[in-house]
Every structure is written in structure tokens, then in C-alpha cells.
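Model it.
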Amino acid sequence: MAVSLSVIRRPHKNRDHAIRAAYETGAYSYQQVAKEFGVHFTTVGRIVRKAMKSEAAADTMSYQLAHLCFDNRPDPDDAR
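Modeled.
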């Protein structure tokens, strides 16, 4: 059984974080989350997508930095 939306909502001071946490449980639709928070379901979608884009951008940045570090290593064959 899923945790109720009111329980998910309680520990979050930030509304958007609470909305994202509620949706990410996988137990609730945009419409159900929207009703609990008193917003339109498209607002829930915007909040969820914004978080997903931010996470994707962070992942891309980490990937690029890792490759930058590894791509600039000296070639061991050049040391000979």
C-alpha cells in the first residue's frame, strides 16, 4: 500500500520538492498529486519535468568533466 500524500508532504518545506517526492513514488498520477497540493495537473508536470531536466543536465556535466579529466591524461606511450 502506498504512503498517503499527506504523509509524503509533511517533511518537505518546499512545495516543489514535496510534489516531486509524491510523484516519484510511482503511486500517484499528476492529477492526484495536483489535487492534494491545490494546483493544476500541468503545474505538477512542469515541476516534475524541470527536476528531470536539472538531473539530466547534472549527469551530462559530470560525464563531460570525467571525460575531460581522462582525455587530457598524458599518453604513456609518449613517455618513451
